[in-house]
Amino acid sequence: MRYLPHTPEDISEMLQAVGASSIEDLFSSIPKTCRRNRDMDLPEPYTEWELNRHMDGLAKSNADPSDHKLFLGAGMYDHYIPAAVSYLLGRSEVSTAYTPYQPEISQGTLQAIFEYQTLTSRLLGMDVANASMYDGASSLAEALLMAIRVARGKKTTVAVSELVHPNYRRVVETYFRPTGYKVVSLPWKDGRTDLSGVGDIPDLAAVAVQSPNFFGCIEDLAAVGKAAHDAKALFVTGFTEPLAYGLYKNPGSQGADIACGEGQSFGIPKSYGGPGLGMFTSRDKFVRNMPGRLIGQTVDRNGERGFVLTLATREQHIRREKATSNICSNQGLCATTAAMYMATLGGVGIRNLARLNYDQAEYLKGALKSAGIEIPFSPPTFNEFVAKFPAGFETKHAALLKKQIVAGLHLKLYYPDLENHYLLCVTETLSKADIDALVKEATS
After folding, report:
1. Residue 266 — φ and ψ, nearest 5°?
2. Which of these, 389, 392, 391, lies nearest to 438 by C-alpha position?
3. What is the C-alpha end-to-end distance of the chain, expressed in Å?
4. 3 state DSSP class of 361
5. pTM exceeding 0.90
6. What is the residue-averaged pLDDT of the chain?
7. Cβ contacts of residue 21 below 8 Å, gap of 6+?
8. Which of 341, 344, 269, 336 is nearest to 96 (CA)?
9. 368-406, pLDDT tens digit by residue?
10. What phi, psi does 298 have (nearest 5°)?
11. Which H or E run contains 422?
């Protein structure tokens, strides 16, 4: 038996220590109307092996992604994870590492996160990265709050593109609702953000777009940056697929002040939607307004290279009103995973993988166009794009699901005007045969 219960003697001794005569006395402060007065309707106890069979049966009630062809992205992406990453992540010195408050016993953890910051800054072309945040959505919300801090409260409005992931926009609205600051939406046209009204927004602290955006289209980041800076606002770039910057120009080269987003693509399994990894970078001049924590490099008293928690203006380190965020923990293990993934692939590997993802999606796009399916938006895309299918495609979509093909996301769920528009994603995990099968089934 793996888990031994307390003996009656143990229970009696503990009750005596707390001054209670029975277990029932421990719950005396809870009104009887709030307590269950009957036994739970549970089956007889299982043996360990019977329980395993029962759990296996429950698991089979869910669809197994490994048995399906997933043409679904929309913020979470299927990528192969190198075996070296999985192995290294499972080592006890990595998987059991705690928050590195004590540098003298946390050099390994501190160096791993420092390397993550370095690789992230290089990928995104930015000056400095923090030691990660919860996920892409909270990173974007914190970036916009940071922009208001940079403006020293003189500007209280942020503009967010309607092509930012809808769930991210909801998180931003949740963050901002009690603050008194204002969030305005920027409309879109032909798959990209419409910037024509940016200059007319008063008290503008930041302009935020996502690239690739929710439609998979690459935004003209240089144009967004110019529009934001002309309005004396910060330019914030978000993303859900950082792999795109292995192929396309990174935010730093296009004038971004803050670049942030989701790092799940870098070695982190989807795991029913979490955990994710909030990547966050900015220009060096804004570093003291950054949320979260920052690992820095130094030397010890012997002149040896070392690492320390350099900046951590969080609520447990500083008076709450002076804290840059109330993010109470980073995603250290996920950040380490991303660092392992980026280091394993290297710059050439990331570029080659990004090119493969691009080519795969372009092949599907071309095949659908040849079959008469409309591709409604003209800007370049990365590994996902929008296709407009004939009316009634929902029925075929359901039929494809029964054949274990997930034919994208119906955008009507988020954009009511986009009836019969589906967001399709292709990564390296899908073969040419898989793509051909989707085209054949979807267009027959």
Report:
1. -90, 70
2. 389
3. 57
4. helix
5. no
6. 92
7. 15
8. 336
9. 999 999 999 999 999 999 999 999 999 999 999 999 999
10. -150, -165
11. strand 421-425
